[in-house]
Amino acid sequence: MTPQIRAFDDAAIVAAAAVIATGGIVGIPTETVYGLAADATDAVAVARIYAAKGRPAFNPLIVHVADIAAAMRIASFDDDARALAAAFWPGPLTLVLPVRRDAGIATLVTAGLDTVAVRVPRHRAIQALIAATGKPIAAPSANASGAISPTRASHVATSLGGRVPLIIDDGACPAGVESTIVAG
User: Fold this and answer.
1) Can you tell me whether residue 58 is helix, strand or coil?
2) Span 79-116, pLDDT tens digits
3) Which residues on adjacent β-strands are paired with residue 117?
4) Which residues neighbour 17 within 8 Å (Cβ) at sequence distance 6 or greater?
5) 118 to each of 42, 143, 182, how far by Cα in Å?
């Protein structure tokens, strides 16, 4: 099966949100690289990310959320984390923080650890998907595990093929490298 590649617009985001709502996965650009997105609260959907990438289950995923308030609902922030978030979000910074017991995040996202990697992306496409789903989005890079991270929709299609049914194309990712990760 060949993935459907749709140009970023409102209709494409509605279609992507429908895939996410049914436990599916989609390729979506961020300001860093294209991500393989799923509902971070749905363990079956998260398992689809691992299967599509061939990623080992001991390797946690980054959760993308709309804003700092949403991040604080899933992770415990200390003063340093709050200062970093205020200075660098939205943007290509991932904070690894203690996961809140009431976070509602699938255990597979954290690989069973007591921490969660969280970030507030700047890119309009993933922000639109977060808004359309109303969910935190688990989204590691949208490539086969160990392969070069994709910066274009065509790279996602080449790397994952039919393992991802829908890819939203919004051109090349501005940064072209993964986010900086800071453990709190």
Assistant:
1) coil
2) 999 999 999 999 999 999 999 999 999 999 999 999 99
3) 62, 96
4) 129, 132, 133
5) 16, 20, 10
